[in-house]
UniProtKB/TrEMBL annotation:
The lineage of its organism: Eukaryota, Fungi, Dikarya, Ascomycota, Pezizomycotina. InterPro entries: SAM-dependent_MTases_sf (IPR029063), SAM_O-MeTrfase (IPR002935). GO terms for biological process: catecholamine metabolic process; methylation. This is catechol O-methyltransferase. Keywords: Catecholamine metabolism, Methyltransferase, S-adenosyl-L-methionine, Transferase. Its EC number is 2.1.1.6. It comes from Penicillium angulare. Belongs to the class I-like SAM-binding methyltransferase superfamily. Cation-dependent O-methyltransferase family.
Length: 242
């Protein structure tokens, strides 16, 4: 019998996760994005391999966001998958800004996989976060170009890179090109060590392109434990904008 492709495994897991969440009382998750993010983590722990942003890594990112000044209002996420991290970003923004989250406080999460987009939209609705977490179907670069053209995104406090590693660097540079960074913005990237994003890592570690007037970054690797063992989260702070 032919073995299942990774794509088919992800799709099957997404169906199982939907069943796992929606077979529980809705009251457990209503208005509670943290509870839903925790349920996704529990499901992943039980099922084994699932490419979610684990709590051990999330803790590092959360600390950076809570310390950010001024407080974050606009978060971009490249790679939605099942919405674990998108729900967590929304929950962090709610912790910071209160239950009545202001209209200009938003998470935009991007994924070309329509199945994952549909699942995450249902999760976002269940958690009562649909006014804050926007799930956009398509490549992150296309969706971001559109948001900028529409005037919906003019400045970014944090961009999270958790999609396919070959896109990390160009999607970081897109924010430079669109002049979306501010001093103190954060670029947070998962899996820079494994499977690895060497061009991205070299770029942020060097502080950016080094060209006159270019964006400058200060970057640090955080080793965390979780899921399949040690893994690195790269957090880069914007020191100067272009
Ligand atoms: C590692 S998963 C994301 C995990 C997610 N952040 C979470 O914690 O649940 C990677 C996702 O990136 C998506 N992806 C691949 N290329 C992309 C692109 N160019 N823009 C946005 N998403 C992309 C894939 O479809 C996949 O669902």
């Amino acid at each position: 019998m032919a073995s299942e492709s990774p794509q088919d495994t992800f799709a099957r897991r997404a169906d199982e996760l939907r069943e796992y969440v929606f077979s529980q009382p809705a009251s457990k998750f209503e208005n509670n994005p943290w509870a839903l993010a925790a349920a996704i983590e529990t499901f992943a722990n039980e099922k084994g391999h699932m490419m979610i942003f684990r709590d051990s890594k999330l803790a590092v990112a959360k600390e950076a966001l809570l310390a950010q000044q001024p407080a974050p209002r606009t978060i971009l996420e490249f790679g939605t998958f099942v919405g674990k991290s998108a729900l967590a970003w929304g929950a962090i923004l709610r912790d910071i800004h209160g239950e009545n989250i202001p209209e200009d406080v938003n998470v935009y999460t991007f994924d070309p996989d329509s199945k994952m987009v549909a699942l995450t939209r249902d999760f976002v609705k269940l958690a009562g976060m649909e006014n804050t977490i926007h799930v956009l179907e398509g490549f992150g670069s296309d969706s971001l170009n559109k948001l900028v053209a529409e005037g919906k995104v003019t400045s970014v406090d944090m961009a999270f890179y958790d999609h396919w590693e070959k896109y990390y660097l160009s999607d970081l540079q897109l924010l430079e090109e669109k002049k979306l960074w501010r001093v103190g913005s954060l670029a947070i990237a998962d899996n820079t060590d494994m499977p690895g994003a060497p061009d991205y890592l070299a770029y942020v570690k060097a502080g950016g392109s080094g060209a006159a007037g270019a964006v400058k970054y200060e970057s640090k690797s955080y080793e965390t434990q979780g899921g399949k063992g040690p893994s690195v989260v790269e957090i880069s702070v914007v020191l100067e904008t272009n």
